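[Q] Does anyone have a clean structure-token version of this?
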Amino acid sequence: MKTRFLIFLILLSVLACKKDEEEPVEEEIIPDQLLGDTDAELLQSVFLSSIQATTTGERYSGSMTTYGFNLGRVENVSRSPIHSFMISRTNPDPIYYAYYSQRYPRTMPYGNDLTLKAHIKGVDLEGEGISLIIRCEDKSLAPVQVVTTEGSVSIKGTFDWTAYTVELKDLQSTVDVLYVYLNYLPNTTGKVYFDDITLTRTE
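[A] Here you go.
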């Protein structure tokens, strides 16, 4: 009787192990579009954090009108549907600049190309203007890959909604942190609106 019971327990144990082995590990699917709140419509936006910063490294968040900038999510100036992100300034400053940023928090699409695309509307933008940035860092937060429109694409003047892009090739396996930035550069005045912002991967 004891022998039968032992055989029964061993059989159950073998079957349980087999069941565990057969269960497939669910692989995380990385979406083709990596950003959230791309059209600025979420009331509590999970997309871009608005930051005012200095060229010496200080960063500030808070009041919309501090440090000479006006920043915020605005209504009825948009490409789709009714909101966009805005930055404006009336006096140029060589130290202060402002930006919106978002960190991509999920599994990294290593080996893929990434394209940051933003539709931008400019009103009397003068000076250094606007830039788009993709910045990739390792675990110690040292830059691994950085691409920007600054120095190669002029984004200033007065213009209606226009698509601008910056592309990063072959995301490296040492990247641990991935950010996008919509930059209002130092020595810039005027008003800019951002809408329909995407970060798309291609294999």
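[Q] Thanks! Anything notable?
[A] The CA atoms of residues 83 and 120 lie 13 Å apart.
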